[in-house]
């Protein structure tokens, strides 16, 4: 029989795996693969989760998040929800720049995208969407947050994370460290199409009262919209809005 802590970890990974396939839904095999579980184990756990409303199957037989998660989230929103503060900031960025703008929050060693607002420019990047998660150091938001952690935390994360295996040589530890140094010099992060070729991103970290990065504002778009001269303009805008959002969150 699985140890209780192990079961909790597996369930957590499985719920995250299903969330990554929202709103389209996930097959059992896809959820198992994403969560790093054997298919029979994933199916057994999903069946138990469905019985209590944490997941359910749609008309096509795909797994989706269940209504009980909505009720649990609503109960916790008063303590953790910052989207009401971030929403107008994200909208201002999208309107002012014409690009897609986002707010992502840090959750442990990951970022999760909570908000997206598309700007007026007709060609958009679809790398980010609400609910998607990336490890720290991946995508502009994850890089912006990682860059402003303590050096010991950065060293520990890069020592235990194998970003290169999942995201390619551009995410080898040495390459990530170079981008961390550049982010600290500029004050904002730049992702030059490292996840999807031609899809660029920029981000600035949002800090809490202890000057710890707890989230990031980001912009994404096609490479031609992120030339060097405009990067400086967008970077200044991102840092200003991130500073204002941090003040609002602390207040």
UniProtKB/TrEMBL annotation:
GO terms assigned for molecular function: DNA binding; DNA-binding transcription factor activity
PANTHER family found in the cross-reference section: HELIX-TURN-HELIX TRANSCRIPTIONAL REGULATOR, ICLR FAMILY (PTHR30136), TRANSCRIPTIONAL REGULATORY PROTEIN (PTHR30136:SF39)
Organism annotation: Nocardioides seonyuensis
Residue ranges of domain IclR-ED in the record: 68-251
InterPro entries on file: GAF-like_dom_sf, HTH_MetabolicPath_Reg, Tscrpt_reg_IclR_C, Tscrpt_reg_IclR_N, WH-like_DNA-bd_sf, WH_DNA-bd_sf
Protein name: IclR family transcriptional regulator
Keywords: DNA-binding, Transcription, Transcription regulation
UniProt KW Lipid metabolism keyword: no
Gene Ontology BP terms: negative regulation of DNA-templated transcription
Record field: transmembrane: none
Domain (HTH iclR-type) ranges: 5-67
Residue ranges the record marks as coiled coil: none
């Amino acid at each position: 029989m699985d140890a209780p802590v192990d079961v909790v970890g597996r369930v957590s990974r499985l719920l995250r795996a299903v969330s990554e396939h929202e709103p389209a839904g996930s097959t059992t095999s896809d959820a198992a693969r994403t969560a790093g579980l054997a298919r029979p184990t994933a199916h057994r756990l999903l069946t138990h989760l469905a019985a209590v409303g944490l997941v359910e199957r749609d008309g096509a037989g795909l797994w989706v998040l269940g209504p009980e998660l909505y009720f649990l989230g609503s109960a916790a929103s008063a303590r953790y929800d910052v989207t009401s503060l971030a929403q107008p900031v994200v909208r201002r960025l999208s309107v002012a720049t014409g690009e897609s703008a986002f707010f992502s929050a840090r959750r442990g060693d990951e970022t999760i995208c909570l908000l997206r607002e598309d700007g007026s420019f007709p060609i958009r990047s679809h790398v980010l969407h609400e609910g998607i998660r990336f490890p720290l150091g991946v995508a502009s938001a994850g890089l912006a947050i990682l860059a402003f952690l303590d050096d010991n935390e950065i060293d520990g994360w890069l020592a235990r994370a194998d970003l290169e295996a999942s995201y390619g040589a551009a995410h080898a530890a040495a390459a990530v460290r170079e981008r961390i140094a550049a982010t600290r010099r500029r004050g904002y992060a730049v992702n030059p199409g490292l996840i999807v070729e031609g899809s660029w991103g920029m981000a600035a970290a949002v800090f809490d009262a202890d000057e710890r990065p707890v989230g990031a504002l980001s912009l994404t778009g096609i490479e031609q919209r992120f030339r060097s001269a405009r990067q400086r303009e967008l970077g200044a805008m991102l840092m200003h809005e991130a500073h204002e959002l941090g003040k609002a969150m602390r207040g």
